[in-house]
Amino acid sequence: MKIKVLRDILSANDEIAAGNKQMLDSYGVLAIDVMSSPGAGKTSLILRTIEKLKDMAKIAVIEGDIASSIDADKINKVGTPAIQINTGGACHLDANMLRNGLRNINLADIDLLFVENVGNLVCPAELQIGTQKRMMLLSVPEGDDKPSKYPLMFTQVEAIVVNKIDLLPYSDFDFDNFHRTVSGLNPSVRIFKASCKTGDGIEEWISWLKSELGK
Asked: Which of 58, 140, 162, 201 could form an S-S bond across to 110 if both were Cys, CB 3.0 to 4.6 Å?
């Protein structure tokens, strides 16, 4: 039956995800599943974070994309190890893909691992991959109505970065409406406003990360 097959797939994924998390915990690595729609600024936020934390935390990145290694190349260029995972058409990373990626990283040498998921607001939210934290980015040009249209994503994360706030003067993005809707879906989520282009608001995000890292 179709329902049974889906249940078996999800069960197998969750088992591998639990193993991934146990492995990361055993090495004391904080891993964060980074999700967003395409172009929201996942790689830009990771690069900004590396710039701010490079002297106090050892960071690595696993890049998930349908094709290419463009983003991994950007990360490697600044001296941070990045592993590329190409899904070959799948719209999300799964726990097995992350497990394979972890095999190519010396976990004993890192404190913080970013897992940049494939860009979309649907599929990545549906599967746990084994990170301790999940966060997402939403960019101002996407509009403040996305929590109403894609509620699952907004319920699955501990932190949200609203990126490209430098464009707020040229947009009708209603942050108060966005905050109310998100808080109704996920009362405990942390919401940060930032611009990866200008650097505005990045420090608040960095402070949250430091507290999660115990720095």
From this structure: 58
Residue type at position 85: I
The one-character DSSP state at 140 is G
Calpha distance 106→111 (Å, rounded): 11
Placement of tokens 């994360």 in the chain? 157
| CA 196 to chain centroid | 15
Report the C-alpha gap between 168 and 163 in whole angstroms.
10
| pLDDT, tens only, 173-188 | 999 999 999 999 999 9
Classify burial at 143, counting beta carbons within 10 Å of its beta carbon; exposed 0-12, middle 13-18, buried 19 or more.
middle
Q: Which residue has the tokens 């639990």?
A: 18
User: What does the domain layout of the chain look like in residue ranges?
Assistant: 2-213
- Can you read off the two tokens belonging to residue 190? 């942390």
| Of 153, 126, 150, 91, residue with least CA distance to 17 | 126
> pLDDT tens digits, residue range 58-99?
999 999 999 999 999 999 999 999 999 999 999 999 999 999
Q: Which helix (DSSP H) or strand (DSSP E) does residue 15 occupy?
A: helix 2-27
Q: Which CATH number fits domain 2-213: 3.40.50.300, 3.30.870.10, 3.30.1360.70, 3.60.110.10?
A: 3.40.50.300
- What is the C-alpha to C-alpha distance for residues 26 and 3, in angstroms, rounded to an integer? 35
Q: How far is CA 108 from the centre of its chain?
A: 22
